[in-house]
Amino acid sequence: CVCVCGGVGRHIRASGRQGVRAALAHENQSFLPSRVQDAMSSFGGIEMNIADTGADFLVSSANKCIQGVPGFAYVIARRSSLKKTQGCARVLTLDLYDQWQFFQTKGQFRYTPPTHAVVALKTALDELEAEGGVAVRTQRYRRNQSLIRKGFSKLGFGMLLPEELQGTCITSVCFPTVEGSDEIHPQWDFETFYQSLGKRGFALYPGKVTQAPSFRVGNIGHLFEADVRAMIAAAAAVLVDMSICQADQITWVESEW
After folding, report:
1. Cβ-count burial of 214 within 10 angstroms (0-12 exposed, 13-18 middle, 19+ buried)?
2. Percent share of the chain, pLDDT over 90
């Protein structure tokens, strides 16, 4: 709707890396006519002060860290920046200014809204507040991520990102290798691993978006430490079935995990 020459991401969902710092937005304010904050995979799951980002528009969705359902996206905008977009929309559905004006004058959507998604969003926001807010949810996601990292590492998997760059929303796990080398284990087959975990009640991201031989594990959603521990135990059992680990190598799962 508006000429945008700069965007800043808080969390890079492709790899799980924590996104560009808010300071970047401030450093570029002098030459960016508008600044858009991509918060699709971070809003509600990472503490942030929108004023500190320097963004004119923050865009996110209800179905990520807010933990709603797909079908509802939203924009948090500076009023002064939003007013500048009047008459700039190229398509009806993305005319934010017109929708905002309709809210102001009519108190509703211009056309039939996704009522189920709106109700789910309201419920999800109530649940976020009941959990203790974003700070508490961030800590839960961080504990999930820490356990995922620890568990898969003990099973012989590597991590794509160093710990200092790791975000709280998703973890990229490298394929297991032969001990003492960078060669992928000859018994490893991601499709087998993926399907076998699915039969045990756990779903991984079925693909990767980096060049590295890896897969992704989500840390967000209504997941808790017990869920992560159960997933690691299931992964250990699958690795034994795939002849990547011996049963006596994963006794720690029952004794420690």
Report:
1. buried
2. 65
